[in-house]
Structures are given as C-alpha cells and as structure tokens.
From TrEMBL, chains A, B, C, D, E:
Chief place of localization: membrane
Official protein name in the record: Chemotaxis protein PomA
Species of provenance: Fundidesulfovibrio magnetotacticus
One of the Pfam families matching this protein, by short name: MotA_ExbB
GO BP, one annotated term: chemotaxis
Localization in the cell: Cell membrane
Keywords assigned by UniProt, alphabetized: Cell membrane, Chemotaxis, Flagellar rotation, Hydrogen ion transport, Ion transport, Membrane, Transmembrane, Transmembrane helix, Transport
Gene expressing this chain: pomA_2
Record-stated family: Belongs to the MotA family.
Annotated GO CC locations: plasma membrane
Keyword set includes Transmembrane helix: yes
Ranges where the Motility protein A N-terminal domain occurs: 7-88
Record PANTHER family: CHEMOTAXIS PROTEIN MOTA, MOTILITY PROTEIN A
TM helices/strands, residue ranges: 6-27, 142-166, 178-198
Length: 251, 251, 251, 251, 251
C-alpha cells in the first residue's frame, strides 16, 4: 500500500482548499460549467487520442499504485539465488515446479527446465521484458496526455468566458465576477494537471522502471544459471543491480 | 469501426457548445474572418511544410481510423501458428499458396517458399517493416504540424484584431466587442489543436505501434518457422508478445 | 518545380492581408522600425549562431525546393535494377561507364568496377550517406533557428514599445496607437516564423528524408549486386523500400 | 567542499533581496499563505510523483554536493596505473588486498584476483556502472520535478488570488495590494525554480557525469590489466580520458 | 578570426539601440537595479548549476571562436594523404617524427609507429574523440544554461517591480513609469538570451561538430593506413567526408 501517493494527493488538495478559505469563500471556486468544460473536454480529447483499452489499462495501473506491494531488487536477487541453489541440488529439471506470480520468472524456469537453447531463452525473455515495458508505459502516456489536455481545456474555457464577458461590457459591475469565473477553468486545469495527472504519470514511470529492473535481474539470473550453475556466482553478479548499502551478505 | 474517436470528437464539441450556450449566445462565437485566418493560415503553413502526397496520405490515414478493423496481437500469433502447422504438414513450399491481405506476411511466405537465405529474408522483412513504420509516421507528423500551426495562427489573428482595435481607441464602447472578436481566433486555434489535431496524431501513433508490433510478430514467426519447424515452439515464443491475460492456451 | 510551397506561401500571405483589409486599413500594419528590429535582430542572431557557409548553404537549399525535380523511390529502384542487368550481361567492369548525376551512385559503380572489397564499399558509401545527411540537415537547422529567433525579437520589439509608451503615460490618447505599434513586432515575428521559417524547415526535412532514402536504396542495391548478381532478386529486395501501391511489377 | 554552489545560492538570494529593498519594503514580499501554496503544493506533487525512497535519496545527494570531495579523472588514472604496477610485480592475486572506498574498483580488483573470466568481469562492471548511473540520476530527476512543479503552483496560487480579488471588485482601492499578493506566489515559484531547484539538478548531473567517467576509466583500466599487464600501456590508454593539458607525464 | 560573430553581435545591438533612439530617449532603457537582478541572478544560478572549471572552460571556448583558425575537412584529408605517402615511402616507423598541433593525430601517428594492435589504436582514438567531444559540449551546455536563466531572472525582476508598483497604487501618475522600469528586466533577459547566449551556444555546437568531423577523418585515415598502405585509396575513402564540390582532385 503506497501511502505517500494518497498523502500527497490529500495534503496538496487540503493546502489549496485551506489557502482558498483563508482568503475568502470556498463556494466562489465551485462552478459547474467550468468543471464541465475542463473535465469533459479533457475526457473527450483522451477518447480521441487513445484506444479505449489503453485508457482502461491506465486507470487499472493507477489503482495498482495503491494496492500492489513493491518488490525490491534485493528480494528478486534472493529469489534467483534460491532458484540457483535448487537447480544445483536437484538439477535444472526441478525448476519446472517453482511457483511464482511473476509471469516472466515462470517462463524462464519453464524454458530452462525444458532445456531450450540459450538463444531461444534469450530471445523469449527479451520479448517478454519488452512487452511488459510497453504495456506499463501506456499508463504513463495516458496520464501525460491528461496532464497536457487539462490545462489546454482550462485555457479554452477561460477564452469562452472572456469572449462572453467582453461581449456585454455595458455593465461594468459584472466585469470582475465574470472574469473570476472565466479564470476558474484555467485554475481547474492547472490544478488537475500539476497535482494529479503529471505526478501520477511520474509515479507510474518510477514503478515501470522498478519492474523492468526486476525483470532484468531475472534475465541475467537465468543466463547465469544456464552458464555456470553456481549460486555464489549468481549472487555476486546479481548483487551489482542492488545499491551497495542494501546488499545482503551472501550465506 | 472505431466509435471512441467519433464519440470523443462529438461529445467534446457538444460540451464546448453547451457551455457556450449556457453562458450566452452561440452566434457570438461565430466569425468568418477569424475562421479564415486560423483555417487558411494553418492550411497554407501545412502546404509549405509537407509535400502534397504526405498531406493526402495523412488524411487517408485519418479516415482509416474509422473504417479499418484493428487486428490484435493474439490474432497475428494464431495466424503464424497456423502457418507453422501448414509448413510442417505440407512442407515450406506450401506457404506459397497462403492468402492474406498483409503485404509483409505475403512477402515472408513467398521468401520462405522460394527457400531464400535467412539473411535475405531477415533484411527484406526489416526493410518492409521500416518502410511501413515511416509511411505510418507521416500521418502522425502531419497532424502534429497542424496541432502546432493552428494555435500559432490563432495568436496571429488575435494580434491582428488587437492592433486594429487599439488603432481606433477613440470609441471606448466598441472596445469590448472588438476584443471579444480578436480573442476568437485564439479560441478556434486552441480548440482545433486540442480537440482534433493533437488527439488524432496520438491515435495515429497508437495505431502505428499496433501495426508495427504485428509485423514484429510476423518477423519473429518467420524466423522461428525457418529455424525449427515446430508449431508449439512458435506459439510459445510468439505468445510473449501478447499480454498474459489475453494469451490463448495452445491446443 | 514544387508549386505547393509557392502556393502555400502566397495563399497564406494573401489570407492574412485579406483579413487585415476586411478589418480596416492595411497601412496600419506597416512600420519601418518594427520590421527593422525583427528582421535585423533575427539576421544578427543568425550570423552569431551559424557559420556564414552554413547560412549560404541553407538559402541555397531553400531555392532548390522550387527548382530541383523530386526523384521517387521507384525510379531509384528501376535504375538499380537496370544497373544489375548491365553488370550481369556485361560484367562488373561495365559499371565504370554508367553515367549519372548522383555522386553516391557514381562512387558505388566505380568501387564495384574497381572490384574493391565489400567492406571498403560498405564503409565508403556509409560515409557518403552520412556526409550528405549532415549537409542537408544544416538547411533545416538554420531555418529552425530563424523560426525560433524571429518571435523572440518580436517580443523584444514589443517590450521596447511598451517601455517607451509607459514612459510617457501623460497623454492617454496616444496610448492605444502606441500599443498597436508595439504589438506589430510580435505580429511580424509570429507570422514570419509560422508561415515561412518553420514550414520551410519542415519541407527541407522531408526533402532530406527522401534523398537519404534514395541513397539507402542505392546502398542496398550495390550490396545486392556484389553478393549475387541477379536483377530479379535486386528488384524483389529493393521494392520493399517502395509503398506497396506504387511498386512496379518487375518484367 | 563545493563553495561555488553555496556562494551562488547566497549571492543570488542576496542580489534579489537587495534589489527588493532598493525598491521599497521587504516585508511586502513575505506572505504566509502564498508560501504555503507554493511550498506545500510542490511538496505534495513530489510525494505523488516519486517514491519516498527516491526523494530521500535526492536530498541526500544534494547534501553530498557540499561535503564530498571531487575525484579528478587524472587521480583515477593514477590509481589504475599503480594497480597495474602492483599486479605486474606481485601477480594478479595481489589485487585482493587493495583498499579503496570505491565499490566498483573493489569489485573489479576482487574479480581479477579471483581470475574470473573476462566476460563475467565485463558484464558485472557494466551492471555496476549502469546501477550507479541510474541511482545518481534519481537526484537529478527529483530536483527537475521540483523545478517544474514550483512555478506551476506559483501560477495556481496567483489564479486563486486573482479569482478572489475579482470577486470583490467593489472596493477599487484594495485592487492593487490584492493583485500584488496574488503575484507573490508566481514570484516564489519562479525564484525557487531558477535559483535553487533547476541549478541543483544541473549540478547533480555534472557530478553524475564525473563519477560515471571515473567508473569508465576503472572499467577500461581493468580490461587493460587483464589483457596485457603493462603499466605503461595502461597509462597511455587511460590518459586519453583526461584533457590534454591535465595529463601527467608518466614516470 | 571569425568576423561574422562579431559583426552579428554589433549589428544586432546597434539595430536595437537604433530602434530605441528612433522611438525616444535611450536613457530610459538603462536601469542599474534591473541589470543587477538579471546579470547577478543569472550568474548566481550558473555558479550553482555548473562546476567552476566548466564555467571557465565555456568562456575560454567563447574567446576561441574569435581567435582560432577553422581547419576544413579537405585540409585534414590532405594531411592524412600526405601521412599515408610518408608511411608508404619511409615505413610506418617514420610516422613518429610527424609534427602536428592536433593531439589526436599525434597520438594516432605514435600508436601506428609503435606498431600497436589495431584494436588498441581503435579503442584509444575512440576514447580521445569521445573525451574531446564531451569537453567541447561543456561550452555549449553552459551558454545554453545562461540562455535559459537570463529570461527567467528577467521575469523574476518584472514580478518584483510589479508587486512594488501595485503595493502603492495610490499615486496613479507613477504607475506608467514604474511599470516601464519593471518591464526592463524582461527586456534585458530576452535580449541577452536571444542575441548573445543562445547564438553563442549554437556557434559552439557548430564548431564542435567541425572538430569531431576532423577527428573522424583522422580516425578513418589511421585505420586505412594500417589496413592497406595506399595513399590513393586513403584519398578516395576520406574524400567522402568532404562535400562533392570542395573535393580536390587527387594527384
């Protein structure tokens, strides 16, 4: 459970709302048509720019930020060392029975147990890593699009408001409030983009990096097990992926 | 038929028009000269920046978004597995009779049937994939250009309006409406760019990615069939291109 | 002769001038000092940022857009097939007599006729392609620089005008016209950049791509002729560079 | 100890404060809610966009700018030459006793002493260099994020202030001061970004480059020692990494 | 001596000053505190963002633009052909006596004379080229930083001026002049960036490209001399680096 994300979102919103209340009424900052232009326009632009499956995938990835447990590089290294120990003790065939949630690790074990050629294992795992990377990047791309479209529709909303306001300039008293309302869409767009869409895109990228790194460890580990079946060597080589401070001493 | 694109375009436009009508008259937002500057200027800049064939190709690609059926990665994998089964049962020569709309798949089958060398097959398919990718990217580039030029000509139109308005400042009453009209070009440019041009460019990129992915599957499949003529292995390797959830169980 | 470029430039300018005249006097949009700041400043920045040879090369490339005939990929493929037929009929030595304007094709033929090693041919043609690409990119870079500097000097001119206007605010009547003049530089800069400099840069990039593609076809063709002297195979392989619809049926 | 960074930060701040005091009261530029929106919003966006470990790592890297001694390329070359001399005199096994703070150098020595295969040494050091590079880049990425979010929340704060000010336009006297306060958030955001966040990100990048260069020297040196155990050759090859003027004459 | 740079800088400045004088007093555009904020702030940000050695290196590179003679590609080709002739007539050992200012050429000659292995020569020259490229890029990076920071501090200065002006709105007469002064910093920042910093960065990049190209010619020439000691072949291959029109006919 990733509390930092939730905390960041709530504190950020709280601070902005707090600053608004300190300066006056909060109601002044709520406007239906303004929200409609920004949210509706951004959603519409998203529907045109991304296939519907990618949009669903992105929101799925967003909710996974909160639910999924992060697997550290050291944990993956430990798993690969344990697998190397099993394969040494019980032979490569024993890898067929290894249970894991990780699709790529499962495939690697199966390929080694099937005694597939090193080239085939190399190619297959490379394709798996590349596919996963691409699928994870979709989430980032969708949220980046949202982060670009929401301020744009904020500007569009403000232009609509300004044109309407300037059209009836005969009543100078209504000028101020009308312009305040016109600026609300720009405010909505900027806030959505900078507090929600762009940060979520960045977090998804950090997540993708972590998962791809873990797959790279699995990839190098599988190559290592195939080449020389020595758990100590596997630990030595794979620990280079882990920051020096976090490296667990072998044995 | 891609309904999401059409739905996005119409809802987005509907929302903007709705928000305009809620705030006043819609007629106020229609202005001939403003549209002329934005649309005409953008078209002119496009004619200078892209050869006429590329512009036609881009609009062709745009209409294909609505008409063409999307072929999923799993479908391509299934086709390649079926081809592997045929080539195993009836020999590589049988691939000559395979019927397909896909130019690259056809060329791959012909090359295998002609028992061309692996290097020639590799090179030829790489060139085919690269050519197709480039042709598809043209559409994206053209719509991105449109998405850059339309707000620029929006700004140019507004500058024209402002200069004219400021030139005859003696009548303060006409100030507001004149400025309202001046802002319309910026509004047109921003709306065209963010609701139409940029989202369409993004959708074309997503399409290109899907097609190139399909060609990569064909490429890997052809290599696999050449190397070891085993349909099970072909399915195993190619299924790595497909998201784990969508993978069809072989046999 | 590339009419689209000329047409785009004249229509674009015509539309803007038309829109100006529809809204008032055209004379109001002409101002000597404003043009001096934008054109002079942009030229000065260009002289600092690019060696004089590159600037001349860029304008040379610009005029070539109008004069030079575009050679299509299919034409180059046909030439390479004909060369393969000659070399098959009359031997590789016959390539020495082939006449062509294309420097790279000439060099390729000479190298093959001299029976240079494949590695030397590969390296030399790679260097030729890379040199030509770089020389063509200079034109694009120079026009992109112009497209960046002209709006910047437009802004600088407007700032000068604003400072002067604000300095003598005692006469409110002159405020409007002074600001109108101040905005002219921004207008000049934006128009020059978006109707001329940036589109020309884009067109030069498209041209470069076409020429590099043609050289790649020559490169692959030369390799093919060296490896197996079969015109049919040469046509088959090189036609992958051409869009499927435009491919001429061999023989 | 990096005085330039500290000096830059203090002089920059001093100049801005000085310019403010020369023009009026400094108190006018202090506003609690404004600081709350910019600092709080930026921090909140950072918590959403980066895992908490990365944020801590970034601030850790920031403080290291001041404390850590810079190791020049020439020093690393000298160390590698000395190691080559030791390994020549006392054999490769002697490298096991070499003491160094550098994790990668230690690993390189251990691998050579263990007489690991050249491929294993190559792969392991490549992974180490890549891991270190990635860890160092995190600091840069975090400060770049801060440099992007702080002006954005500055703009958001100004929008809040403008909306509130325009809402109560009945008191024209309060207009000026209210707008002054509204602009303060933009000022805070721009100052933080351009005097602190972006420059620190740039300095961290320069640091990363220096450390990666040092690792590359270690990597090439280790390869050189393995291939031909000649200290003169090691110095000759590695000195190519050092600017000509700073190269120490060997022996 | 590069007159174009000097001419560009002086004409650009002259045009701007001329336009200012045509529109009013020049003194109005001079303001001490404004210059202090822009120049001081930019310098401070530079000190934080780049190590002091890199800043000195950048200014050193800037002055070299004026002093250093440009060596054309054809000249380097001629030198390499002459070296090939010497090495053919007098043997590879004769290369040890070749005198040149170019560090890389000297190293190449020494390595060939020492009959070092082709791999060692290849690696060493690659490192030399990469090091030189990196050192030259520093100048470009520093001037690009200056070109980014100067308009940013221009904006910061204008914000300070606006806040101070709005704080004492009771005197409407002082409004105009105060705002004029506030805008001066933006003017300074934009002028410095677009007439000086960014163009110089671009010129440094062009210079770097030329020098790296010359090194690539030396690199290819050295490889060619090692492989087959034929001056005619060396000229033939290296002349591919030179634009067709400038190629000198051999012999």
């Amino acid at each position: 459970m990733d509390f930092a994300t939730l905390l960041g979102l709530t504190t950020g919103l709280g601070l902005v709302v707090g600053a608004i209340i300190m300066g006056g009424s909060f109601l002044q900052f709520l406007d239906g048509p303004s929200a409609m232009i920004v949210l509706g326009g951004t959603t519409a632009a998203l529907c045109v720019s991304h296939p519907i499956e990618e949009v669903l995938q992105a929101f799925n990835a967003f909710f996974k930020i909160f639910s999924s447990r992060k697997v550290t590089a050291q944990e993956v290294v430990n798993v690969m060392v344990r697998i190397a120990e099993i394969s040494r003790r019980e032979g490569l065939l024993a890898l067929e029975n290894i249970r894991t949630d990780n699709v790529v690790l499962k495939k690697a074990c199966k390929l080694i147990a099937d005694s597939a050629g090193p080239q085939l294992i190399h190619d297959t795992l490379r394709i798996e890593i590349h596919s996963l990377k691409r699928r994870h990047q979709i989430g980032e791309t969708v949220f980046k699009s949202l982060g670009t479209f929401s301020p744009a529709f904020g500007l569009i909303g403000t232009l609509i408001g300004l044109v309407q306001m300037l059209g009836r300039l005969n009543d100078p008293k209504s000028l101020g409030p009308a312009m305040a309302v016109a600026l609300l869409t720009t405010f909505y767009g900027a806030l959505l983009s900078n507090l929600f869409f762009l940060p979520v895109a960045a977090k998804l990228r950090a997540r993708t990096y972590q998962e791809v790194l873990n797959l790279e460890i699995i990839f190098e580990g599988a190559r290592c097990i195939l080449q020389n079946n020595n758990p100590l060597l596997v630990r030595d080589k794979l620990s280079s992926f882990v920051p020096p401070k976090e490296r667990t001493v072998g044995r």
